[in-house]
Amino acid sequence: MQKNTKQSNKQSRISVQSTLIMFFLLALLVSGCAGMKSVSIIRGGSAEQDVLSQVESVKANHLAHFLTVKVRINDSSEDLLFLVDTGAITVIDKQTADKFTFTDSVVNEFTDIAGNKKEVRLVRVGKMSIGKIRVSDCAAAIIDLKKHSPRIDGILGSNFLRYFKVELDYQNSQLVFHGNSGNQTLDGFIAIPIWQNMKQGFAPTTKCILDGSIDVVCMIDTGHDKAVSLPLSIIQKTTGFKDGKYIESNGGMSGGLFETISKSYLIKAEKISAGNLTINNSPVTTNASDNLMTLGYAYLKNFRIVIDYPNSVAYFKPFPELKPESKYLSFGFRCSKEKGKTIVTGIWKGSVADNAGLSIGDELVSLNNKDVTTLSMMEIMEMMNSSSSLNVSYLQQSSAKIANSTLHKDDLMRLL
Predict the structure, then answer these.
(1) Do the Cβ atoms of 371 and 362 come closer than 8 Å?
(2) Mean pLDDT for the chain?
(3) Is the separation of the CB atoms in 248 and 263 below 8 Å?
(4) pLDDT band at 309, cuts 50/70/90?
(5) CB within 8 A of 170, min separation 6: which ones?
(6) pTM above 0.85, yes or no
(7) Whose CA is closest to 129, among 119, 137, 121?
């Protein structure tokens, strides 16, 4: 088996916050022969024709905001746990990948949503299957995912899903692969045109209009846990930002797979339109892309969603009992795993964490009486997302003393 030939010399940090954005989005930076071979591998692949006319329901579970499914590689009978992320290329954990032999691979440079670059091994997987759904010669990036959670074996990205009409059913915890019966309108659904963005692993992408006049390219991204994120260059064009109606952070409050964003902003978007789909009064945070908006789980979960990749249409049908959230509930801090320690690396100004006295550089000792050294980033994320209050014990950087605070999740939008 081939091993990674080169690693970035930049210290990799794993980050989480009470409003963590877990981006596994990777963009390929094409240059030279390696870049062209990477493009060939990513563009390759095919779905086995006998499954294209069938309807296949696949049981899914939940891990934080992700749907997870069982995946098999090549002829192995081992069920592997993959996160479903429409905003990513398919990824196999490095430790998991070491169990298999891949016939074709190349090392090339990728960038994450935070703008950080790293050399990554890209392989061609002979066969990847979910239930009866099979794709041959599927591209996959090999990245260490176990540091996020020892449970994760990989990420199922849009370069696998792109052959199918896929329904994301959060309420019933399943993926449904519909047969490709042509471009048929679904009754009661809002249809919006999409295209596949190869640079983002064939992620479903559409055009949006922000505040009635600002054009932006939008990616449907189940890997983003909040409703909407925008590049700072776009946020700065909004009326609210120009009027000073924003919250900023000390340090960064979001990040990518490899590294972090140095500073974040939070605004309220009065209206975002994608065709006949409208998002009103939505919290919006910054991402570090040049031009991509992300539409994430906190918004998507309110709909029955069908992404028809072959016919370039996405369908949204709202659940009557659900309503997109206009609040931004947060404990107000973010942390990173650095050399075995869990360090506060971001604070929303005016948040409950800020008012309680947490500072950048403080070291977390326990959360809800659980030693943080025993918790993975996914476990910390699940705890912070599911809890309305959080008992935080931490070592103050300024005084080298242990402090304790009980934080109650609060709506940051009240500060605007």
Answers:
(1) no
(2) 86
(3) yes
(4) very high
(5) 67, 300, 301
(6) yes
(7) 137
